[in-house]
Structures are given as structure tokens and as C-alpha cells.
TrEMBL record:
Pfam families: TetR_C_14, TetR_N. Residues 22-41 bind DNA. This is TetR family transcriptional regulator. It comes from Streptomyces sannanensis. PROSITE patterns: HTH_TETR_1, HTH_TETR_2. Keywords: DNA-binding. Residues 1-59 form the HTH tetR-type domain.
Length: 219
């Protein structure tokens, strides 16, 4: 019934327009009662984004699962779950993109959905960066960067009508984020710094030996 309501709604949105379509129109087209609509969707806007709640739940479960992944790599993996939701049904995804672009209210609704994904990533990263003084800031910035990179590539694919390899484009964008932030890992801001003072004429091998001795790596 849920799928029938979505299909009926999009038929009407595309033929009559979003604003002109009422919930009564949707349930009549789907052949169900009005009460059935509200069993699945709080509003007409929610019919346009029927799969985001499920995807968000999957993302949170993915981030909560035990993993040895580097933090930025993990949130990039979470972003790929969102991409898969779009690429599993390209026709629907392109239709939704075009509809959302033309209806300001839907764009606002979409922004609230994207914000929920970003918050889930940021909350995960705060836990991973808890030992850093700038952990909260770092978490928010990286989460925003992952979402921005993902959406940049995703929207390019949607604008093309679903042509091309969305996964390759999104992976390229996410690797850009990992290249910028991934090397930071979970290191503590209190890591030791070794300073070696030596003459300019000292051979490089002796400088290396001094560093190895100071850091306990001299075997």
C-alpha cells in the first residue's frame, strides 16, 4: 500500500503539479482510504521522500557498528549508503530531483532531510574525536564536507538524467574529503613533539639516529 501511494502521488505530481494535487486525489488514485495515507506519511511532502527514514536508520546502524575503520573513511562509507538509495531506482530519483527543484517547499523539506544525515555523521565523529580539544569543531566540519562532496557529485548525476557512473563520481568526491581530513585520524593533540638541534654539517644519517633514539625506535 505504501508503494501504491507513492506511485499514485508521483503520477499526479507529474501530470497535475505538486501544489494542485491533494491528499484526497492521491488516495483516490491509489484506491485506498484517507486514513491509510496518514498511516504511512505525515504529510504530502513526505510522500516525495519515502525512503529517507529507512536510509537514515541504516546509516546510524552502520556508524554504530563495531569497526576499525579510520573515522573519515567510516562516514564516507555511510554517505555511500545514501547514494545507493538513489541509484537503486534512478528513474524515481531523477523524477524526484526535478520535482524538488520546481517546488520551494520541497527544497526546504529536502534540506531538513540532508541536515539529519549530517547530524548523524557529526555525532559519530564527535565520539571518535572525543580526545581532541577541537573534536566538536572537527566533527562538524568533516560531516559538512562529506555531505557537500556527496551531494555535489550526486546532483551532477541527477541533472544528467541518471546518465553515467554515479558511484565513481561520488567516490572521487569522497576521496577528496579523505585526502584532506583522513590523515588526521584520531590522533591526540597532545602527541609528543621531538626537536633535534644539530650542526648544519651533521650527516643526515646521524640526525635520523638521534630522532630514532629520542622516540624509542632505535633498534
Amino acid at each position: 500500500m505504501r508503494e501504491a501511494l507513492v506511485a499514485a502521488a508521483f503520477d499526479l505530481f507529474l501530470s497535475s503539479g505538486f501544489e494542485a494535487t491533494t491528499i484526497d486525489d492521491i488516495v483516490t488514485r491509489a484506491g485506498v482510504g484517507r486514513r491509510s495515507f496518514f498511516r504511512y506519511f505525515p504529510s504530502k511532502e513526505d510522500v516525495v521522500f519515502p525512503d529517507h527514514d529507512r536510509c537514515l536508520a541504516e546509516m546510524i546502524a552502520f556508524l554504530d557498528a563495531e569497526s576499525d575503520d579510520e573515522p573519515v573513511a567510516r562516514v564516507c562509507g555511510a554517505a555511500r549508503l545514501v547514494l545507493r538509495m538513489y541509484t537503486d531506482n534512478p528513474t524515481f530519483s531523477v523524477q524526484r530531483y526535478r520535482l524538488t527543484k520546481s517546488v520551494p517547499g520541497l527544497r526546504n523539506h529536502e534540506l531538513s532531510v540532508v541536515w539529519r544525515y549530517e547530524r548523524a555523521m557529526a555525532n559519530y565523529l564527535r565520539g571518535r574525536f572525543a580526545n581532541r580539544g577541537d573534536g566538536s569543531l572537527r566533527a562538524d566540519v568533516i560531516a559538512a564536507a562529506v555531505v557537500a562532496a556527496h551531494n555535489n557529485a550526486l546532483r551532477s548525476w541527477l541533472r544528467s538524467g541518471g546518465e553515467g557512473d554515479a558511484s565513481a563520481d561520488v567516490n572521487h568526491a569522497l576521496e577528496f574529503v579523505r585526502g584532506t581530513w583522513g590523515a588526521e585520524g584520531e590522533g591526540s593533540e597532545d602527541e609528543d613533539t621531538v626537536v633535534v638541534i644539530t650542526k648544519r654539517s651533521t650527516p643526515l644519517w646521524r640526525v635520523v639516529r638521534e630522532i630514532q633514539t629520542a622516540t624509542g625506535q632505535d633498534h
